[in-house]
TrEMBL record:
The keyword Membrane applies. It is a peripheral membrane protein. Gene3D superfamilies: 3.30.1490.110, 3.30.420.40. The gene is ftsA. SUPFAM superfamilies: Actin-like ATPase domain (SSF53067). It is found in: Cell membrane. This is Cell division protein FtsA. InterPro entries: ATPase_NBD, Cell_div_FtsA, FtsA/MreB, SHS2_FtsA.
Length: 438
C-alpha cells in the first residue's frame, strides 16, 4: 500500500525556525537531477518575501535519464538504476546519507481545477476542524477516478456568502465556504514514480507539480502577485502553472517537449538521435537569417558510418526546430486562453526547462502568445554551480524551497502506515514526513 491509495500524495509540514536538510529529485525524460541542501533561517528578502530560509547547496548531480517517457516511468528497472546513480553522486559530493527526497511530477496530464465547497457551521464560530472538513470535501470532489491530488491551495474563504475572508477562524457565521485550487494528476504516473524511489531505499517526503515548484524558483513575489504564467518546457512534456495574487490559480500540461524537436531533426536530416540532440544543443534556433542557407555542416548518416556524410544547411535545421517550437507555443496559447490567465492581459510569461534555452524562443513566444516573455532562472540561491544556474534546473531548485510554502496548502490528517518489506528487500515507507526541523 502506498501513500496514494487514498488519492492523496505525501505532503510536507510547514517549516520551523531552525536549520534542516532536504534533498530534491527531478526525474525527467532527458535527465535526472538530485540536489541536497541545508536550509538555514534567514531575514526576509524584499523580492522573495515568502522565503524564510536560505538555501545552501552541498551536493548535486545530473545524469541522463533512462526508463522515462513524457514524465512517466516506462521501464521500472532502468529508471531505478538511474535514480540510484543520481542520488549516489549527490550523496558523495555532500558527504551525507539521504533518507528521503522531495519528488517532482511532470507527467500524468496535470490539471488545475477551481473548487468551491461550503457547509453549515456546527458550533456557531469557525474552527480549524471546520476548515479541514470543508476543504477535504472539496478535494474529494476534485479527485476523480484514477486521479490523485498534488496540491490543494485555498485561495479565499466565505462566510454566509460574503467572500474575500482571509482567515475565518473564530469568526461567527451560519455557513462557511472555501474557494480552492486543486491540482491533480494521473494516479498511476505518481504511484510508479513513488515505486521507483521506494526501490532505491528512499522515502518520498512530498510530491509536487513541476510547473508549480518551477514558479517558486524563478518568479519574484511581485510577478506572482501581478500575474504570471510559468511554462516548464521539458524533454517529454510541457507543463504550465499560472499565478495571480501570489497564489497558484491553474495548472495544465501536454506531452510535447524538447525530445520531439530532437526526433524531428533526426528524421528530417537523416541523423541518429544522439547526433540530432547534439546538433539541437549546439545549433538549435528558431530564428533564420539570410546567411543560414549558405552555412553548411556535415552530418553523419544514421545507421552506416561508411556512407558519405550528408551536407545540411543551418536554415534547414532552423526550419525543423521552428515548426515544432511553434506547435508547442500554439498549444501553450490555447491552454492559457482556457485559464484565469486570459483575464490578465498584462501578465507575463516566464519560460523554464531545458527546451526553453533554444536560441530565439523568447522572440517566438512573444509573437505567438502576445505577452511579455522572459527566461526564468533560479532566484535567491547563494552559491550554485554554473550548470545549475540555468532554466533547466528550475524544478530541482524549486523543490528545495517548496517546504517553505507548505503552510499555504491544505494537508489531510495523516494515518500511520506500517513498514512494508517485499521479497526483494526494499522498504515501502511512503509518506513519512520531513525529518526533525520541519
Amino acid at each position: 500500500m502506498t501513500g496514494l491509495d487514498r488519492n492523496l500524495t505525501p505532503k510536507t509540514r510547514p517549516m520551523q525556525k531552525r536549520t534542516a536538510m532536504v534533498a530534491s529529485l527531478d526525474v525527467g525524460s532527458s535527465k535526472i537531477a538530485c540536489m541536497i541542501a541545508r536550509l538555514r533561517p534567514s531575514p526576509p528578502n524584499e523580492a522573495l518575501r515568502g522565503r524564510t530560509h536560505a538555501v545552501e547547496l552541498i551536493g548535486y548531480s545530473q545524469i541522463q535519464s533512462r526508463g522515462v517517457k513524457a514524465g512517466s516511468v516506462v521501464d521500472l528497472t532502468e529508471c531505478e538504476k538511474a535514480v540510484r546513480h543520481a542520488v549516489a553522486l549527490a550523496e558523495r559530493m555532500a558527504k551525507v546519507r539521504v533518507e528521503s527526497v522531495l519528488l517532482s511530477v511532470s507527467g500524468g496530464r496535470q490539471h488545475g481545477q477551481l473548487v468551491e465547497a461550503a457547509a453549515d457551521i456546527r458550533g456557531g464560530s469557525v474552527t480549524s476542524d471546520d476548515i479541514s472538513r470543508v476543504t477535504s470535501a472539496g478535494m474529494r470532489h476534485a479527485a476523480g477516478a484514477g486521479r490523485t491530488v498534488l496540491h490543494a491551495l485555498p485561495v479565499g474563504y466565505a462566510l454566509d456568502g460574503v467572500k474575500g475572508i482571509r482567515d475565518p477562524r473564530g469568526m461567527v457565521a451560519r455557513q462557511f465556504g472555501v474557494d480552492m485550487n486543486v491540482v491533480t494528476s494521473d494516479a498511476t504516473v505518481a504511484k510508479n514514480l513513488m515505486l521507483v524511489v521506494e526501490r532505491c531505499h528512499l522515502n518520498v517526503e512530498a510530491m509536487a507539480s513541476s510547473p508549480y515548484v518551477a514558479g517558486l524558483s524563478v518568479l519574484t513575489d511581485d510577478e506572482a502577485d501581478l500575474g504570471a504564467a510559468v511554462v516548464e518546457m521539458g524533454a517529454g512534456s510541457t507543463t504550465i502553472a499560472t499565478y495571480s495574487g501570489g497564489r497558484l490559480v491553474h495548472a495544465s500540461g501536454f506531452a510535447l517537449g524538447g525530445q520531439h524537436i530532437t526526433m524531428d531533426l533526426a528524421r528530417g536530416i537523416g541523423a541518429c538521435i544522439a547526433d540530432a540532440e547534439r546538433i539541437k544543443t549546439l545549433y538549435g534556433t528558431v530564428l533564420t537569417g539570410g546567411s543560414d542557407s549558405r552555412e553548411l555542416m556535415s552530418v553523419p548518416t544514421a545507421g552506416d558510418d561508411r556512407e558519405t556524410p550528408q551536407i545540411v544547411s543551418r536554415a534547414t535545421i532552423a526550419n525543423i526546430v521552428r515548426h515544432r517550437a511553434e506547435e508547442i507555443f500554439e498549444m501553450v496559447r490555447d491552454r492559457l486562453a482556457d485559464s484565469p490567465f486570459a483575464a490578465e492581459p498584462r501578465a507575463r510569461v516566464v519560460l523554464s526547462g531545458g527546451a526553453s534555452q533554444l536560441t530565439g524562443t523568447v522572440e517566438l513566444a512573444t509573437r505567438i502568445l502576445n505577452r511579455q516573455v522572459r527566461i526564468g532562472r533560479p532566484l535567491g540561491f547563494g552559491r550554485l554551480p554554473n550548470e545549475a544556474k540555468g532554466a533547466s534546473f528550475s524544478v530541482p531548485t524549486g523543490l528545495l524551497v517548496y517546504p517553505q510554502y507548505a503552510h499555504l496548502e491544505h494537508v489531510e490528517p495523516r494515518r500511520t502506515r506500517q513498514l512494508r518489506t517485499g521479497t526483494d528487500g526494499y522498504f515501502g515507507k511512503v509518506g513519512r514526513w520531513l525529518r526533525e526541523g520541519f
